[in-house]
Amino acid sequence: MKYLFIFAITSLFLACSSSNEMIKPVTLSNLLNLKVNSTWSYEGTFLGEKIKYELKIVDVKEEVKDVKIFTYKDSKGQNYTHDKFGIRNDKFYFVKYPLEVGTSWVNKEKDEVEIATIESITEKFKFGEDELHSCIKVSYKKSIESKNVLVIRTFCAGYFLVSLETYLENNEGIAIKQSSFELKSFLY
Which range marks the domain in which residue 137 is found? Predict the structure, then answer.
């Protein structure tokens, strides 16, 4: 029994100390903790066509109101803000507090209403040789021209957005994948 206990503790220690596991507790602060020249490269498909996409942070601003607010601007002109409610761009929130399964919110843009829900806070994502843990999976559901659209984004600590999938429901109610992107490289 003593040897079984020693084996179990040793196995647990070795499993937790693997260099190929990236375990960081997820907070909104470490999801979007970037600097100028932080760069993401994504690869994937859109309607069957292969796509490569790159984003780079070109500006970072910090302001203090009742809490610190960080705003990041990317190379495509998009702003990302970490405020007291969550992380958003100029149109909608990607993730909101509290970081718990089931947390939901409504994103509105003009006549479109999108329901966002945190589906998981324990997702894993394979990034090169590493496996990222405690990633957040968020689903976003809306209707466009009477078609239901589902977008699934996965966010990981230190990397922000690592994957995105888009589905469109056909006339029979079956979700058909329209796009899929994954992070292929990241430069902090």
Answer: 19-187
pLDDT in tens, 103-135: 999 999 888 899 999 999 999 999 989 899 889
Question: Is the dihedral angle over the CA atoms 109, 49, 133, 159 positive or is it negative?
Answer: negative
Residue 106 placed within a domain: yes
Put simply, whether the predicted model's pTM sits higher than 0.85 gets the answer no
Nearest alpha carbon to residue 40 among 155, 135, 122, 131: 155
Which run of H or E residues covers position 148? strand 147-156
- Domain count for the chain, please give it: 1
Which three-class secondary structure state does DSSP give residue 28?
helix
Q: Which residues contact 21 (CB under 8 A, 6 or more apart)?
A: 130, 131, 133
Q: What is the DSSP letter of 88?
A: E
